[in-house]
Amino acid sequence: MTEHDKRSRWRSFCPxxxxxxxxxxxxxxxxxxxxxxxxxxxxxxxxxxxxxxxVCQHCxxxxxxxxxxxxxxxxxxxxxxxxxxxYGPECPVGLMELRIERDEGARSAxxxxxxxxxxxxxxxxxSAEFSLLVRRAICVQCSRIAGxxxxxxxxxxxxxxxxxxxxxxxxxxxxxxxxxxxxxxxKQQLLKEGLDLYVSSAEVGRRMAKAIVKHMGxxxxxxxxxxxRRGGRELYRVTFLxxxxxxxxxxxxxxxxxxxxxxxxxxxxxxxxxxxxxGERYFVPLRDQKRAKRV
Length: 295
Ligand SMILES: [Zn+2]
Ligand SMILES: [Zn+2]
Prior knowledge:
Radius of gyration: 34 Å
Bound molecules: zinc ion
Order of helices and strands: HHHEEEHEEEEHEHEEHEEEEEEHE
Number of helices: 8
Strand order of the largest sheet: 9-10-8-12-11
Structural class: alpha+beta
Shape: elongated
Distance between the termini: 119 Å
Helix content: 25-40%
Number of strands: 17
């Protein structure tokens, strides 16, 4: 018997089950090695998720710190982290299935998982089903809304008149349509002269003012007021004063003895209209509208 034969005979038994084998994984045959593997430890995953994510009880969004996230992302991270901690960061992990069932507003979620990984060259598939608890909190955005926080005000007015209800409604719809994901209106105030919207940032206020003027005509002006200091930085609140056109389509105005029915508003320039008696067409520039009277 050669040295090689002896060696291979000695190596060909699994010390755990005694089965003959040619290939060893951590000194065990493949099936004993597999039997000792455990990819998914539900308690550990649930604990990790519980520690790293919270759900806002106002808006229902999930947060990791102050950053918005999805529960699926957090669960997947926890799974990958657990496997890599046990079997090394180099072993490939793939999520074959991840389903999370959650009742609206419920603190607990039910997770269905199917994961595949390759541990020391052995492909393993494992499934798990378990419940986890999610911490409840109030996110920064919701607490700011609740506290009436605002960084800018959008004031909707009209030249030489009060905007009517339809106009305010249309302007408000345009303003809300300009809201981005993290932005909000914390207060909406109806006044004799128009509507004020208290918004989360100067950027969104500016976007709202632009959207209103683009669709409804008129102009907007921006002004800022110092309201405090934080960490040596001056804090400003910005006001966007939106002025809708003084006249709207369908109005009849009196100017220099003529009665003119408004047909079209030309943003930033004036309006086009028809003399109701002669049928003649006129263009009335903005600067002349001040002298006109609505009839
Ligand atoms: Zn074995
Ligand atoms: Zn929230």
